[in-house]
Design brief:
Helix content of chain B: 25-40%
Order of helices and strands of chain A: EEEHEEHEHHHHEHEHEEHHE
Largest sheet of chain B: 8 strands, mixed
Strand order of the largest sheet of chain B: 6-7-8-3-9-10-12-11
Radius of gyration of chain B: 21 Å
Radius of gyration of chain A: 21 Å
Strand content of chain A: 15-25%
Oligomer: heterodimer
Strand order of the largest sheet of chain A: 6-7-8-3-9-10-11
Shape of chain A: globular
Helix content of chain A: 25-40%
Amino acid sequence: MTTAPPLKVESISKRYHARHGTVYALRDLSFEIRAGRSMSIVGESGCGKTTAAYCIAGLQPVDAGTVYLAGEDFSGATRVQQKRLRRDFGIVFQNPLSALNPRMRIWQNVAEPLRVHEPNMGVSNRKQLAESMLKRVGLGLQHLQAFPGELSGGQLQRVVLARALILNPKLVILDEPTSALDVSIQAQVLNLLQELRDTLALSYLFITHNLALVEVLTDDVMVMYAGRVVESGPADVVFAKPRHPYTRELIQSIPDPSPGNRKMLGLNDYSAVQQIAGGGCAFRQRCSNARAGCSEVIPPLDFQAHAVACLYPIS
Amino acid sequence: MSQGLVISDLTLEFAHGRGRAAAVDRCSLMVRSKEILGLVGESGSGKSLTALACLGLTPSNCRASGSVRVNGDEIVGAFEATLTNLRGRRIAMIFQNPMTALNPYFTIGNQMVGVIRQHFPIDRSEAKQEAAAALKQAGLTDVVLNRYPHQMSGGQLQRAMIAMAIACKPEVLIADEPTTALDVTVQARILSLLRSLADQGMGILLITHDLGVVAQVADRVAVMYSGRIIESGDLNQVFSATAHPYSLGLMEASPMMGMGRRKLRAIPGVVPDFRSRPAGCAFRDRCAQAQDVCALGVVPQTEIAAEHQVRCHFPIRESQGAELK
């Protein structure tokens, strides 16, 4: 085994049982992050992108399918094996304050993975490693003894990042890491993530609703809608020439920060459209290009470099 | 001119130690009818507090001075009864999170009828018709009248909030981060709705941290930093000839589509807390071109072009701005 991809996902599915019926949060998700590449998952709330992250990280069991970490079966592994495999990736969540233990000091929070995975390591060694990692993410040593409540949001996100990196993983899962931060602070954290990716040769799985951040951090992008991937490929290609009508709508909806380019959309209320069960394309009721065939078959993802799941893609 | 919303020298102070600290410091703004003023700033800059002061909703431990006039009526220091008559009727507000702003125990229809009958002597069925008309204007059908908040999506709730706010046809609407909790496709439609309301004659104060949102719908823009308006003016003027280093920094820190892997220009440091704001210019600790004079006294506001004011000793000239970019 020479170069197993840091992450490979094979047709994983996840459903939740709710009072009003079953919600298919994830249907047949397959993709692969090759060594040295990074991937973004974008989509609107409820499309399944966070469920995907949780299933991949083993925080939610999958209903079907397999997650491979560095070539090894993670989702089907025993608890002991899973614990060992967890060393291979770090996670950064959206809200850093709730991701850290409020009663542990900053350095203890950062050193916690070492306590779990390196039980033989002494306290002073752990503290030293935590120190150097905190320095690496740009935090001064005056924060070592502080508690999470004393730091600002941007600083806390750096702490979470330090904790995610302390076991030297090759893969980091970033679930909306900057959406709780202000613009000027977001830029600081994004720049740090860029720098760490390049110097430590990390692969990111980046979950975001903000399309403008995709190209800053990753090479490839997957667009999800109603639990399925509707389009995927290299980010620059997908954004320059979207093939799925939904991707095009997402791109057009982003407010352009130059006053010359105003684009006004209609006032149609699409949020009233319910998720459609059964066959057919889930997007068809919102789609301006929908035809009769769209309600009959679920469009499969054509597995090309720039893949799309649409019967009548934009050419 | 008494039209619209006129805020002049509004100061909002909280007790701090032995003295007081101003969360909003001598803020002056004007929203004319048929116009959207975008108020931009990061968290802690005082923009939401300013919005609350426009409706006399500041917390009880906050001391307000200066003046806020809605079509000539003074809000600061007004009696509660006066405010009750003004709120909803002359000036209304929509909030960031519609789920917590609406009452979960009542249907949308009930809540709207309550607001309408507070201001107009009409019976329930007439009020219900008014409510249905407002919902239609906001892009919803009257089915929504019988819905409870939990039965609706975020985008629908925000439309219902807007419908409730415009039901009594106020002259001024305050929108505090109305699309921050929404998806981009829904956001685009809510922004179009706000624009069409302004075109029909309403004056809107749109508070946001997203420069893209402002660029899409606003006519004028004001940038707030640590409780002070540091730059304001015509939208195109401020965006094309940005004069304050902070405004420029904010623009360059905003990621854009199609910028590729380029590094963003981050502003070092954090927004100072208003209780420990440095003397002089509050931005000077983070500013690359700060000099000794920036620490001395209040920075005066200068008009560097028609409809374009800035509070900086060394405003960026156009040639210089292009260089920095």
